[in-house]
Amino acid sequence: MIVVGIIVAIVLILLIWFVGTYNSLVSRKKRVENAWSQIDVQLKRRHDLIPNLVNAVKGYMKYEKETLEAVINARAKAVSGGSIDDRIKAEGELSGALSRLLAVFERYPELKSNEQVKQLMEELTSTENRITYARQFYNDTVMKYNASIEMFPTNVVAKMFNFKPFPFFEATAAEKETPKVDLTF
Question: What is the model's pTM?
Answer without folding.
Answer: 0.78
